[in-house]
Amino acid sequence: MNPRERILTAINHKEPDRVPFDMGGTVVTGIQATSYRKLRDYLGLPKKEIKIIDILQQLAQVDDDVMDSLGVDVRNVSPRSTASFNIEIKDSEDGRYNTFVDEYGIGWRMPKEGGLYYDMYTHPLSGDITEDDVEHFQLPDPLDPSRFDGLRDASMKVLEDEKRALIIGNISAGIFELYTWTRGYMKGYADWAGNQNLAKKMLHKYTDLQLAYWERMFEVMEGIPIDVVQMADDLAGQNRMLISPKSYKEILKPLHKKMFDYIHSKSDAKIFFHSCGAVRPIIPDLIDAGVDILNPVQVSAGDMNSAELKREFGKEIVFWGGGVDTQNSFDELHTPDEVRADVRQRLEDLMPGGGFVFNTVHNIQGNVPPENIMAMWETLQEYGKY
């Protein structure tokens, strides 16, 4: 099987020759630049400048030589930033941080000393606002032609030259994430409970943004088979949902379903949905809304036992992730033997019957030694064959 055939077989709930492998196929299945640099050195690959493809998470672009060496089965093609906006990195007033403001007006900062990624610290719609303020809040142009420059050629290279599966990325974070990022978490959750009209106004605005983007994307990509569409919305924490399952069903689910129904109407692509944390209570709702693939399968979160998830939902949804417990088995505090044991358990739980694409639980962070990454990969090669 070539890589694309392997992915398509797995995401259609059949067993390919081996479990497909993803590293760098999305901005939630990637590798932080520090770990990536060490991995290249460990593999004996030539020194080169590491390209950052996600400034917030400081994710590295996984180069062709690494993808070929490790047999990565999928590649991401994502929209570009609009040509009318350029990120300008500045010093914070106290000189401790690198800072910038993104095209949504959100402020981000990263410690100059020891910083591995950027955190939010300002929100453009914080404070006391009205629905009129939301109406007039200026969003980036989802139709800017510069966003789509080169996407057709890049996609055809993935499909025809590399024979890998093609993932198309979204224009932004999920609609609930944009809501909390632009409003701020304190005000956002207060509105969710006490001013739902304002919350819904923002959610509908961000839904319209994403629908406009996808409409143009499908026009640009007409005739090119998209295998997977990557969507996201972080809806859960370590032990429970961030919002109640009831409010998800009443407020967010109809908007998710509207977007997912549109995407399914325009393509045969499977919808890959990323939400960290303890999302088990809403997995049936996600399936009903049109989600085909769940990521990152955070097996360390509450009620997210990998064997139970497979038994309960494995015929209805694909698990993309969950291949190694990044919280409890993967960083520099754990040995390669601990990594191998965890990977074997996840394979035993998740691979039967297909419907599983191997990836770590979320991105490989900057504190993961290359010995552990390779222990994970070698175990997948040994025990991931059907």
Would you mind describing this structure in some detail?
This protein has 386 residues and is an alpha/beta fold. It has a single domain (3-84, 125-383), classed as Alpha-Beta Barrel (TIM Barrel), CATH 3.20.20. The protein contains 13 helices and 13 strands. This is Uroporphyrinogen decarboxylase (URO-D) domain-containing protein. Residues 130-383 form the Uroporphyrinogen decarboxylase (URO-D) domain.
> Number of DSSP strands?
13
What number of structural domains do the residues give?
1
Share of β-strand residues: 5-15%
Structural class: alpha/beta
Radius of gyration: 20 Å
CATH topology annotation: TIM Barrel
Count up the helices. Answer: 13
Q: Major sheet: size, sense and barrel closure? A: 7 strands, parallel
Overview in brief:
It comes from Candidatus Desulfolinea nitratireducens. This protein has 386 residues and is of the alpha/beta class. It has helices spanning 3-11, 33-42, 64-70, 131-136, 151-161, 175-183, 185-194, 196-220, 245-266, 283-289, 306-313, 336-350, 370-383, and strands at 52-54, 59-60, 74-77, 90-91, 97-101, 107-111, 119-122, 165-168, 228-232, 270-274, 293-295, 318-320, 356-357.
